[in-house]
Amino acid sequence: MESLIGRRIGVLDDGFVEVVDCMGDDAAIVQAARVSYGEGTKRVTEDRGLIRYLMRHRHTTPFEMCEIKLHVRTTMDCWRQWIRHRTANVNEHSTRYSVAIDSAQRTAPGQWRLQSKDNRQGSEGSLSAERGEHFSGREAEIIASTRQVYDERLAAGIAREQARKDLPLSTYTEAYWKIDLHNLLHFLELRMEPHAQYEIRQYAEAIGFQIVSQWVPLTWEAFLDYRLGAMSLSRTEIGLLSLLHAGRGVEAVEEMQVAGWLQREGDICKPSREAREFAAKLQRLGLSPPWQT
């Protein structure tokens, strides 16, 4: 971690993540789990096995022995999602006391995403770069105009707390964010998920792949295996999988209809969102959804 402290990792067009300080490592997790553990009394292979056991069975307390403090620069709209994780100590750049950061995230013409038809809080696909050119141009106008008005207000002596009110959410803010490893991994599990918003996912991936993987490599390996790369199955899904494994696909479809997962419209079965999520799990296992066979 000594090589990481003070190094800034760029994110988006003008954001960053920087390690300020950290406490603990894989050995500290093992020590907390064993309580009486003494350095050098166990082999690395045994440490790895213990950490994987803790991760697998969600014994979270030993991971709380490690902490990290980050200095982050992110957009205000991204920060709104970030700060919802109420398990960290935070101190943010205040635009009541200081002038707002003169930087805002800009969207390239080919990066305007379209609203998902199935997920109200998600996106799917994107505009063509040709159509996006118009919105990128309008974005640049808004950023320039609001900053000009903001600067004019400050020059006229208007209070910073009021002058800031029309700044766009694309404006960058900075914060110090201190969090223990257990809660950091929970943050990463949610924000590295493919359906998380692209912008915050970029920060999560930078923290995970470029910081946590070097800070606690054994823990990171276990996290990838048992959390990020794993999937959970509900009681209903386990029952359906048992039917499919036994070659009873027709019964599986009937069970899904009873559960409200499938609505039959003539010869077509229309799946609910829960059914579509189950279908995605089946596809990861190399299986076809029963209503499509």
Can you tell me about this structure?
It is built from 11 helices and 9 strands. The strands form 3 sheets. It has a 5-stranded antiparallel sheet with strand order 1-2-3-7-4. Strands 5-6 form a two-stranded antiparallel sheet. A hairpin with a 2-residue loop joins strand 8 and strand 9. The longest helix is centred in the middle third of the chain and has 27 residues.
Secondary-structure topology with pairs:
Elements: E1 8-11, E2 15-23, H1 26-34, H2 44-56, E3 67-75, H3 76-82, E4 88-92, E5 113-115, E6 123-126, H4 129-155, H5 160-163, E7 172-180, H6 181-191, H7 198-215, H8 217-228, H9 235-245, H10 249-258, E8 262-265, E9 268-271, H11 273-284
Antiparallel strand pairs: 1-2, 2-3, 3-7, 4-7, 5-6, 8-9
Give a quick rundown of the structure.
With 293 residues, this protein is of the alpha+beta class.
